[in-house]
Amino acid sequence: MTPNSDQAARAAPPPGPGDAWRAVLRSATAAEFAAAFRADVFLEATVFNGRAIGPDALRAFFGATRDMYDSIAFTAQLDDGWQTLLTWQGGAFGNRPLHGATLLRYDAHGLIAGVTLFHAPLDMALACSAYLRRQLGDSLGREVDWHTTPL
């Protein structure tokens, strides 16, 4: 390696857990966001029953979560080519601790076909559900049924 290429190699750290997923979530436009997904992509989550369908529904959901979390960091990533499992931890609602996992499933073209999102512990999953229900209402479609258990 030449000195310049050696410096370049050090300047570009390897991608961290969740970096590619975070880049999708930070997409500037709806079209850029949608380009990462199948048109019939689904979202399943412990914060609601049913499935949200389509890139617009996923963009609305993840947009609403931005103000919910006080902090969030991906802690590990496992890939097998067809799916990616991301584990994460963070805080919400006054930095109360929560953790979970995000499972991304891909089609044969590398597009995201499905997202499953897990939150724990249960009291925080229910608090997240209540918050997101207030933010999103029925905008994710008729198949999404928010948990209504009081905290």
Automatic annotation (TrEMBL):
Gene3D superfamilies: 3.10.450.50. It comes from the Bacteria. This is SnoaL-like domain-containing protein.
